[in-house]
Amino acid sequence: MTHSAPTAAIETDAVVIGAGPVGLFQIFQLGLHELSTQLVDSLPAIGGQCIELYPDKPIYDIPALPFASARELIERLVEQNKPFATPPHLNQQVDRLEPLADGRFEVETSAGTRFITKTVVIAGGVGSFQPRHLKVDGLAAHEGSQLFYGLDDPARLAAQRLLIIGDGEAALEAAIDFAESATHRAASVTLMHRRDEFKAAPATIGRMRELCAAGRMAFIAAQPIGMRESGGRLSALQVATADDRMPWLELDAIVAFTGVSPKLGPVAQWGLNLERKQIVVDTARFETNTRGIFAVGDIVTYPGKRKLIVSGFHEATLAAFAAAAQVYGKSIPLEYTTTSPRLQRLLVAKSDTR
Ligand code: FAD
């Protein structure tokens, strides 16, 4: 993520930082109050911990949803948000949050997207997820050109000699795809993980082994230890194998699925009261010590806080009432979605047309 030239600022009622389950529900709750919203996340996909850490694990404690995989929960939140959602700003971390003289805030992301907003809701969870980088001296210089953490454009790697690193579904699927694709088949595909054990679905592991047996891709149990360049380009990676060999793998590009780790990062620089790396909020408005900046979900602390999705949903509901009261300059009466003509116009009319 690099800084680029500033663009025209997007004006909005609320910027929600973090597209985990709580940030997504926050968009819905703010929408009920007819506040315009913008959603930002440092990850390339929405869903926060649910998608990044446990997409296929079951969740049993969401009200009225006796069982759902974490992925399904996120899909349902997206469906619920349809009347209000604008396209999220993904793959960009909110770096800067500054108050303006007129009471609004200026928010800027690592991609140079700027917002002028009346309120901010921080739903940053355990922090901004960042890819775990490969620790080989000099390798970082090739990130974005020959080294990729995750994959957004497979076509650009067609016909290249690829090293795919990782043991999860995404790594194996990418390796299989590059070995089989009609449109972006690689010149060669090597999958690398430190052990010959994988966390992917059995069918995916089975397909990967079939392709290896057929000579259409290779697997090596090893870890990277060094690199070689030629004419300024990365030309080979040296690896240490489990049986103490140190071969060089000639390659054109590396795609690493090495997981992510959360960093509180810039949130710590915004002058908010923190307690053990969590934002202190009041439990009536879920507001921080700065008026107009609210915080919800795993990133907050208050007496009795439990890091559960259902707690975050409650917090988002009250934060939305408080944000709306601030934007409209009056207290907001309670309305039921079941009976309020205003809410029905927003929800039912828009649901009918989708
Ligand atoms: P997160 O899901 O952490 O999302 C926060 C998002 O904010 C992230 O995507 C991050 O990249 C983004 N972000 C942070 N800072 C920035 C920034 N500066 N700029 C841009 N983006 C930023 N809870 C339950 O209720 N029931 C369960 O059964 C359950 N099972 C779980 C199982 C596991 C294995 C784990 C790890 C957790 C489980 N949880 C469960 C907890 C639940 O996942 C969390 O409570 C929930 O994800 C919190 O949601 P959130 O939206 O607050 O934060």
How is this fold's topology laid out?
Elements: E1 10-17, H1 21-32, E2 37-40, H2 48-53, E3 58-59, E4 68-69, H3 70-81, E5 94-99, E6 105-109, E7 114-122, E8 128-131, E9 147-149, E10 161-165, H4 169-180, E11 188-193, H5 202-213, E12 218-230, E13 233-241, E14 248-250, E15 253-256, E16 260-263, E17 274-275, E18 278-280, E19 293-295, E20 300-301, H6 309-328, H7 341-352
Parallel strand pairs: 1-2, 1-7, 7-19, 9-15, 10-11, 10-15, 11-12, 18-20
Antiparallel strand pairs: 3-4, 5-6, 6-7, 8-16, 12-13, 13-14, 17-18
Helix pairs in contact: 1-3, 1-6, 4-5
Bound molecules: flavin-adenine dinucleotide.
Residues 17-23, 40-43, 48-50, 53-54, 59, 61, 93-94, 123-129, 265-267, 297-298, 307-310, 312 line the site of flavin-adenine dinucleotide (FAD).
Walk me through this protein's architecture.
- With 354 residues, the chain is of the alpha/beta class.
- The chain is elongated.
- The chain has 7 helices and 20 strands.
- The mean pLDDT is 93.
- Helix 1 packs parallel to helix 3 (70-81), helix 1 packs parallel to helix 6 (309-328) and helix 4 runs parallel beside helix 5.
